[in-house]
Amino acid sequence: MTPSFPERGRFITFEGGEGVGKSTQIALLSAYLQRRGLEVVVTREPGGTPKAETLRRALLSGLVKSFGPLAETALFAAARIDHIEKLIAPALRRGAWVLCDRFMDSTRAYQGENGGVNPQLMHWIEAASIGEAIPDLTLILDLDPHEGLLRAHRRRQTNEAPDRFEAEALSFHLALRRAFHDIAREHPQRCRVVDATAPVADVARIIQNYIDDRFFNDDKNFINREA
Ligand code: TYD
Questions:
Q1: Which of 17, 93, 113, 136 is the most buried (most CB within 10 A)?
Q2: Is the CB of 73 under 6 A from ligand 1?
Q3: Can you list the residues of the chain whose pLDDT is less than 50?
Q4: pTM of whole model > 0.85?
């Protein structure tokens, strides 16, 4: 008898600047997909596995900042290798859907376009670290950085300092927004820019509609897991 393998799950990444509401939207999409009977794995970068979380602490505390953007790129890649190997790839193989808060486009935007790491080098490091773990869909939540930084500030406890990237100047965050728009233009099949200024429930509905159109409405892609 031929063994039946589960269909590979879908890999969806959420990207954008600071305070755009990724974690809220990920939680809402996760609940939406679970109501369809799907297994959903929610994760984040940098981090997602114990080893990658160790690197997260080093990166966000600013410990690595003085080594420069290329060294930061290398450490984000090291964390990503472990994350893919231990968590993302096994989940996709068993048919789970993976929702990841930031992934390779953050490296492209923060360290590449904004940090000035040579694009060819960026490309090699990315290709070597992610292999075939390319997202099926990337949702870029778009918000004016003035508003995003304000939201991030409100979210922090009063005694908590902004992390290494939040603490960058406004010009950095404005350039970041342009970088994400450039990425979306370069990869129109994979990326969707979502206006994150709307109320939470409206943004969630827009995202659910994208997901329905992309993965459930098309006969070719239709997955009836409840059957
Ligand atoms: P986090 O607290 O998760 O921020 P946010 O809620 O905005 O997602 O911190 C992650 C920070 O790391 C964020 O400022 C973006 C930055 N980052 C990079 O610079 N490069 C990367 O490759 C990744 C994954 C994140």
A1: 17
A2: no
A3: 219-222, 224-227
A4: yes
